[in-house]
Amino acid sequence: MEQSTWMQPTDPKRVYINLLKVCQMWQIDEGVAYAVHHLESVFMPPSRHIQLAQMFSVHDWVRPAIETLLRCGLSTISDKEANNLGVKVYSIIAKACEMLECERKLTAAYPPPMTFDPPWECKTHQMVCILIWHDFWWKKVVKQLLHPVTRGSRDLNAGLGNGTGYPWIFTGFLVINM
Ligand SMILES: [Zn+2]
Question: Terminus of the chain with fewer CB atoms < 10 Å: N or C?
């Protein structure tokens, strides 16, 4: 009889995914919790988290993974990852991306009106205050709405190294000082 030798697994994710599969099949709740806990701490692309969430009904993984995808944009997922998500899920996320983009542009296009009553001592409300508010809106708020710079975003990465990217340090400064 051939003797098989045990090999140390090279991919810890695989081990925890297999453990999750077996524990769920045999309804071993503690084992499921153990595998879920460890899968949360190993790095995986958000699309993989969504795929595993679907396979094993881990609902807590869906929201943060979708939020990460919406923040980074669908262009960051590879064809293989998109394929793993499936057409239905990919289409829902793509529509949400489009709606967010539309909402962002709509919000940017119209500065919210100053609806409160101006203080009695302000004699230049129409001529000065409202103009200052519009100026602030167009120069600072709209810039962030149309081109938000967040840590870990593609823009941030593009700005590093190649010298042609977005001046992210400057805009980061704007965010802090707004
Ligand atoms: Zn005023």
Answer: N
Q: What is the dihedral of CA 120, 125, 128, 129, to 10 degrees?
A: 90
Looking up tokens 């090279």 gives: 10
pTM of the model as a whole: 0.64
Q: How many CB atoms lie within 10 A of CB 36?
A: 19
Residue 65 C-alpha to ligand 1 middle, in angstroms? 44
Nearest-Å Rg of the Cα atoms of the chain is 24
Dist CA 51 CA 58 (whole Å)? 10
Q: Ligand 1 centre from 130 Cα, in Å?
A: 7
Q: What pLDDT digit, counting tens, does each position of 75-102 carry?
A: 888 999 899 889 999 999 999 999 999 9
Q: What distance in angstroms lies between residue 117's CA and the mean position of ligand 1's atoms?
A: 9
CA 125 – ligand 1 centroid, Å: 4
Centre of ligand 1 from the C-alpha of residue 124, in Å? 6
Supply the DSSP string of 48-113, one letter for each residue.
HHHHHHHHHT-GGGHHHHHHHHHHH-GGGS-HHHHHHH-HHHHHHHHHHHHHHHHHHHHHHHSPPP
